[in-house]
Amino acid sequence: MNIAKIAATATTALLLLNACKGSGTSQEGSANDPVVARVGAGAITVSEFRARMEEQPPLIRARYGSLEMKKEFLDNLVRFEVLAQEARRQGLDKDPEFQAAVEKLLVQRLVQKQATSAVPAPPTDEEVRKYYQEHLTEFSRPEKVRVSQVFLASAEGDPKRGAVKAEADKLLADVRKQEAGPVKTAFGEQVRKRSDDAASRDAGGDLGLLTREELAARWGQPVADAAFGLQTLSEVGLVASPRGLHLLKLVARQPGFSQTVDQVKPRIESRLMADKRAKSMDDLVAGLMSKTKVEVDDQVLGGLSVDKDGLGVTQPSP
Prior knowledge:
There is one protein chain. By secondary structure, the chain is α+β, with helices and mostly antiparallel strands. Helix content is 55%, strand content 16%. The longest helix has 30 residues.
């Protein structure tokens, strides 16, 4: 359970708990905890007054140094107690929705107690290194480039390869010249008119955002090296491969990064501590479940229908 959610509902939960307490609060107090005010069948003791005061921020507490201000604060407690007693008189503390809210509070308190009392041991350096090795892709990423291509098919040994190379050289010169200005559409036009690779041609020449290894696996090492050798966006180059000639245009570059285990150690330690806390809670639940008899009626469960908007569950008529 998320501890942050517990904190978010703490104020409401405390009010529920106060309203839920029995009306038989001692009217006598004790020598160590005298009564400050009697309210109907209940009482507000020194300890309760202090507890409610401690809930206030330090700057707010500083206002209540005088007797007059203490009386003002006590008046708020009395008003709350009067309302709580009236709520109990009306039986609101027996309302199923209220009881469900109190049960949620009890579970949240248990989770808080477990989180603070069963604090796991800090992760060891060995645990940190193991996590780092098992999650390397989170802490390092190879450089990637996105290139477009105009592919002129001509395998090595093809008698026409020389003529295809000459055509590719001319295309390169034409594209560079036409895209020297702000309008850079010449490459895309050549993709549609001349590229022999149907897949990339249908994608406007785009080969996708790939690592050097991925690009080499698909088009060969020369193409990968040439693509990663392009330095500026929209730069166009030409490279030969065993399959033919490739005019390449750099569209995007995603820098890579590599973080050492020391650089990410605090982050890993935080994750491991969270995992250990979650395991501690899981172990607690598992232990309680092993000692608790649980019976599920599949027929009743199967008969429940959830409305189409998922806003609730309706039970069919018997």
